[in-house]
Amino acid sequence: MIYSSILDKLKTGKLFSLLVDPDKHDRNSLRAIGETASPETVDFILVGGSLVSGSVDETVSMLKESTNLPVILFPGNVLQISPLADGILLLSLISGRNPEFLIGNHVIAAPVLRKTELEIIPTGYILVENGRTTSVEYMSNTKPIPSDKIDLAVATAIAGEMLGHKLIYLEAGSGAKENINAGMIREIRLQISIPLIVGGGIHTPDQIRETYKAGADIIVVGSAIEKGSGEMAGLLNSIWKIRQESF
Ligand code: 1GP
What we know:
Blueprint: H1 2-10, E1 15-20, H2 27-36, E2 44-47, H3 56-66, E3 71-73, E4 87-93, H4 99-114, E5 119-127, H5 135-140, H6 150-162, E6 167-171, H7 182-191, E7 196-199, H8 205-214, E8 218-221, H9 229-242
Parallel strand pairs: 1-2, 1-8, 2-3, 3-4, 4-5, 5-6, 6-7, 7-8
Protein backbone atom coordinates (compact mmCIF):
# COMPACT_ATOMS: atom_id res chain seq x y z
CA MET A 1 0.00 0.00 0.00
CA ILE A 2 1.45 3.34 -1.07
CA TYR A 3 0.06 5.51 1.73
CA SER A 4 1.13 3.20 4.54
CA SER A 5 4.59 2.95 3.02
CA ILE A 6 4.79 6.78 2.94
CA LEU A 7 3.92 6.87 6.65
CA ASP A 8 6.48 4.14 7.38
CA LYS A 9 9.28 5.87 5.48
CA LEU A 10 8.56 9.18 7.22
CA LYS A 11 9.42 7.56 10.55
CA THR A 12 13.06 7.54 9.47
CA GLY A 13 13.47 10.36 6.95
CA LYS A 14 12.16 12.58 4.20
CA LEU A 15 10.67 11.52 0.87
CA PHE A 16 11.29 12.73 -2.67
CA SER A 17 9.15 12.51 -5.78
CA LEU A 18 9.52 13.34 -9.47
CA LEU A 19 6.62 14.83 -11.40
CA VAL A 20 6.33 13.69 -15.00
CA ASP A 21 4.17 15.81 -17.29
CA PRO A 22 3.27 13.48 -20.20
CA ASP A 23 3.60 16.35 -22.70
CA LYS A 24 7.15 17.20 -21.65
CA HIS A 25 8.75 13.75 -22.02
CA ASP A 26 9.31 11.37 -24.91
CA ARG A 27 10.04 7.64 -24.76
CA ASN A 28 13.79 8.25 -24.28
CA SER A 29 13.43 10.68 -21.42
CA LEU A 30 10.86 8.43 -19.73
CA ARG A 31 13.33 5.55 -19.97
CA ALA A 32 16.08 7.78 -18.56
CA ILE A 33 13.83 8.72 -15.63
CA GLY A 34 12.95 5.09 -14.95
CA GLU A 35 16.57 3.99 -15.10
CA THR A 36 18.04 6.89 -13.10
CA ALA A 37 15.46 7.14 -10.33
CA SER A 38 16.47 4.51 -7.81
CA PRO A 39 14.60 3.68 -4.59
CA GLU A 40 17.50 5.36 -2.71
CA THR A 41 16.67 8.72 -4.31
CA VAL A 42 13.03 8.67 -5.41
CA ASP A 43 10.07 7.25 -3.49
CA PHE A 44 7.41 7.57 -6.17
CA ILE A 45 6.74 9.15 -9.53
CA LEU A 46 3.76 11.45 -10.08
CA VAL A 47 2.19 11.72 -13.54
CA GLY A 48 -0.01 14.62 -14.59
CA GLY A 49 -0.25 18.25 -15.61
CA SER A 50 -2.70 21.14 -15.83
CA LEU A 51 -3.28 20.53 -19.54
CA VAL A 52 -2.19 17.23 -21.07
CA SER A 53 -2.65 16.39 -24.73
CA GLY A 54 -0.56 13.20 -24.75
CA SER A 55 -1.69 9.84 -23.45
CA VAL A 56 -1.40 9.32 -19.71
CA ASP A 57 -1.83 5.55 -20.26
CA GLU A 58 1.16 5.53 -22.58
CA THR A 59 3.32 7.59 -20.22
CA VAL A 60 2.49 5.33 -17.27
CA SER A 61 3.16 2.14 -19.21
CA MET A 62 6.46 3.46 -20.61
CA LEU A 63 7.60 4.43 -17.11
CA LYS A 64 6.64 1.01 -15.83
CA GLU A 65 8.87 -0.63 -18.45
CA SER A 66 11.93 0.83 -16.74
CA THR A 67 11.06 1.28 -13.06
CA ASN A 68 9.46 -0.57 -10.18
CA LEU A 69 8.81 2.66 -8.26
CA PRO A 70 5.14 3.38 -7.56
CA VAL A 71 3.57 5.53 -10.28
CA ILE A 72 0.86 7.80 -8.89
CA LEU A 73 -1.54 9.93 -10.90
CA PHE A 74 -1.57 13.66 -10.15
CA PRO A 75 -4.46 14.61 -12.40
CA GLY A 76 -5.16 18.11 -13.64
CA ASN A 77 -8.55 16.90 -14.85
CA VAL A 78 -10.69 13.76 -15.19
CA LEU A 79 -9.16 12.85 -18.55
CA GLN A 80 -5.92 12.00 -16.76
CA ILE A 81 -7.07 8.79 -15.08
CA SER A 82 -5.17 5.67 -16.06
CA PRO A 83 -5.89 2.23 -14.58
CA LEU A 84 -2.27 1.30 -15.33
CA ALA A 85 -0.91 3.45 -12.48
CA ASP A 86 -0.61 2.26 -8.89
CA GLY A 87 -2.48 5.06 -7.19
CA ILE A 88 -3.99 8.51 -7.54
CA LEU A 89 -3.78 11.68 -5.50
CA LEU A 90 -7.48 12.52 -5.42
CA LEU A 91 -6.99 16.26 -5.22
CA SER A 92 -9.43 18.73 -3.71
CA LEU A 93 -8.33 22.26 -4.49
CA ILE A 94 -9.14 23.51 -1.00
CA SER A 95 -7.44 26.90 -1.45
CA GLY A 96 -10.02 27.68 -4.13
CA ARG A 97 -13.75 28.23 -4.19
CA ASN A 98 -14.55 26.48 -7.45
CA PRO A 99 -17.02 23.65 -6.70
CA GLU A 100 -15.87 21.69 -9.76
CA PHE A 101 -12.43 21.22 -8.17
CA LEU A 102 -13.86 20.61 -4.71
CA ILE A 103 -16.49 17.97 -5.59
CA GLY A 104 -17.78 18.22 -9.18
CA ASN A 105 -14.95 16.40 -10.93
CA HIS A 106 -14.78 13.85 -8.12
CA VAL A 107 -18.39 12.86 -8.76
CA ILE A 108 -17.57 12.37 -12.46
CA ALA A 109 -14.45 10.35 -11.62
CA ALA A 110 -15.75 8.23 -8.74
CA PRO A 111 -17.58 5.49 -10.71
CA VAL A 112 -14.58 5.20 -13.06
CA LEU A 113 -12.11 5.00 -10.17
CA ARG A 114 -14.27 2.39 -8.46
CA LYS A 115 -13.65 0.04 -11.41
CA THR A 116 -9.86 0.34 -11.15
CA GLU A 117 -7.41 -1.02 -8.64
CA LEU A 118 -5.83 2.39 -8.09
CA GLU A 119 -5.03 3.23 -4.49
CA ILE A 120 -7.00 6.39 -3.78
CA ILE A 121 -5.16 8.95 -1.67
CA PRO A 122 -7.40 11.93 -0.80
CA THR A 123 -5.22 15.02 -0.87
CA GLY A 124 -5.94 18.60 0.19
CA TYR A 125 -4.34 20.70 -2.54
CA ILE A 126 -3.38 24.26 -1.58
CA LEU A 127 -2.24 26.69 -4.24
CA VAL A 128 -0.08 29.59 -3.06
CA GLU A 129 0.73 32.75 -5.02
CA ASN A 130 4.30 32.74 -6.38
CA GLY A 131 4.83 35.94 -8.33
CA ARG A 132 3.17 34.95 -11.60
CA THR A 133 -0.02 33.32 -12.84
CA THR A 134 0.45 29.57 -13.04
CA SER A 135 -1.41 27.06 -15.22
CA VAL A 136 -3.18 25.61 -12.16
CA GLU A 137 -4.56 29.03 -11.26
CA TYR A 138 -5.73 29.73 -14.79
CA MET A 139 -7.14 26.27 -15.53
CA SER A 140 -8.91 25.89 -12.18
CA ASN A 141 -10.27 29.44 -12.22
CA THR A 142 -9.35 29.84 -8.55
CA LYS A 143 -7.31 32.39 -6.63
CA PRO A 144 -4.16 31.19 -4.90
CA ILE A 145 -3.57 32.07 -1.24
CA PRO A 146 -1.30 35.16 -1.05
CA SER A 147 2.21 34.10 -0.03
CA ASP A 148 2.24 36.42 3.01
CA LYS A 149 -1.10 35.12 4.39
CA ILE A 150 0.38 32.35 6.48
CA ASP A 151 -2.66 32.26 8.77
CA LEU A 152 -4.97 31.55 5.83
CA ALA A 153 -2.74 28.79 4.52
CA VAL A 154 -2.52 27.22 7.99
CA ALA A 155 -6.29 27.35 8.51
CA THR A 156 -6.81 25.81 5.07
CA ALA A 157 -4.39 22.97 5.83
CA ILE A 158 -6.05 22.30 9.20
CA ALA A 159 -9.48 22.26 7.52
CA GLY A 160 -8.10 19.83 4.93
CA GLU A 161 -6.93 17.46 7.64
CA MET A 162 -10.23 17.80 9.53
CA LEU A 163 -12.12 16.92 6.34
CA GLY A 164 -10.22 13.63 6.18
CA HIS A 165 -7.56 14.28 3.59
CA LYS A 166 -4.55 12.00 4.02
CA LEU A 167 -1.97 14.41 2.59
CA ILE A 168 -1.65 18.17 2.25
CA TYR A 169 0.04 19.34 -0.96
CA LEU A 170 1.38 22.90 -0.74
CA GLU A 171 1.76 24.04 -4.33
CA ALA A 172 3.46 27.11 -5.77
CA GLY A 173 2.66 25.89 -9.31
CA SER A 174 4.90 24.34 -11.92
CA GLY A 175 7.72 26.66 -12.89
CA ALA A 176 6.86 29.02 -10.02
CA LYS A 177 9.04 32.12 -9.79
CA GLU A 178 9.26 31.81 -6.02
CA ASN A 179 8.91 28.52 -4.22
CA ILE A 180 6.79 28.30 -1.05
CA ASN A 181 8.32 30.39 1.73
CA ALA A 182 9.89 28.62 4.67
CA GLY A 183 7.69 30.40 7.24
CA MET A 184 4.50 29.05 5.68
CA ILE A 185 5.87 25.50 5.48
CA ARG A 186 7.09 25.66 9.08
CA GLU A 187 3.77 26.88 10.47
CA ILE A 188 1.68 24.34 8.56
CA ARG A 189 3.98 21.50 9.59
CA LEU A 190 3.46 22.47 13.25
CA GLN A 191 -0.32 22.51 12.91
CA ILE A 192 -1.16 19.31 11.03
CA SER A 193 -0.32 15.70 11.68
CA ILE A 194 -0.69 14.29 8.15
CA PRO A 195 2.26 14.35 5.72
CA LEU A 196 3.04 17.65 3.99
CA ILE A 197 4.06 17.66 0.31
CA VAL A 198 5.69 20.80 -1.11
CA GLY A 199 6.26 21.53 -4.79
CA GLY A 200 6.58 24.22 -7.41
CA GLY A 201 9.69 26.12 -8.52
CA ILE A 202 12.18 23.88 -6.68
CA HIS A 203 15.27 23.39 -8.85
CA THR A 204 18.44 23.35 -6.78
CA PRO A 205 19.90 21.19 -4.00
CA ASP A 206 19.93 24.26 -1.73
CA GLN A 207 16.22 24.88 -2.27
CA ILE A 208 15.54 21.20 -1.56
CA ARG A 209 17.56 21.32 1.65
CA GLU A 210 15.83 24.53 2.81
CA THR A 211 12.38 23.12 2.02
CA TYR A 212 13.07 19.94 4.03
CA LYS A 213 14.54 22.02 6.85
CA ALA A 214 11.39 24.16 6.97
CA GLY A 215 9.30 21.02 7.50
CA ALA A 216 8.30 19.52 4.13
CA ASP A 217 7.94 15.73 4.42
CA ILE A 218 7.88 15.12 0.68
CA ILE A 219 9.31 17.34 -2.07
CA VAL A 220 8.09 17.20 -5.67
CA VAL A 221 10.29 18.33 -8.55
CA GLY A 222 9.02 18.50 -12.12
CA SER A 223 10.46 21.25 -14.35
CA ALA A 224 14.05 20.67 -13.21
CA ILE A 225 14.08 17.17 -14.74
CA GLU A 226 12.80 18.45 -18.08
CA LYS A 227 16.19 20.02 -18.90
CA GLY A 228 17.83 16.71 -19.87
CA SER A 229 19.01 13.40 -18.46
CA GLY A 230 22.42 14.80 -17.39
CA GLU A 231 20.80 17.50 -15.26
CA MET A 232 18.39 14.96 -13.81
CA ALA A 233 21.19 12.56 -12.89
CA GLY A 234 23.08 15.44 -11.20
CA LEU A 235 20.02 16.45 -9.22
CA LEU A 236 19.29 12.89 -8.11
CA ASN A 237 22.88 12.49 -7.02
CA SER A 238 22.43 15.55 -4.76
CA ILE A 239 19.15 14.12 -3.46
CA TRP A 240 20.98 10.99 -2.41
CA LYS A 241 23.46 13.12 -0.41
CA ILE A 242 20.74 15.36 1.07
CA ARG A 243 18.83 12.28 2.24
CA GLN A 244 21.84 11.20 4.31
CA GLU A 245 21.55 14.44 6.30
CA SER A 246 19.23 14.80 9.25
CA PHE A 247 16.60 17.54 9.40
C1 1GP B 1 3.90 21.21 -9.94
O1 1GP B 1 4.67 21.01 -7.71
C2 1GP B 1 4.87 20.56 -8.99
O2 1GP B 1 2.62 20.73 -9.71
C3 1GP B 1 6.28 20.70 -9.48
O3 1GP B 1 6.60 22.00 -9.86
O4 1GP B 1 7.53 21.80 -12.17
O5 1GP B 1 8.10 23.78 -10.74
O6 1GP B 1 9.04 21.52 -10.22
P1 1GP B 1 7.91 22.29 -10.80
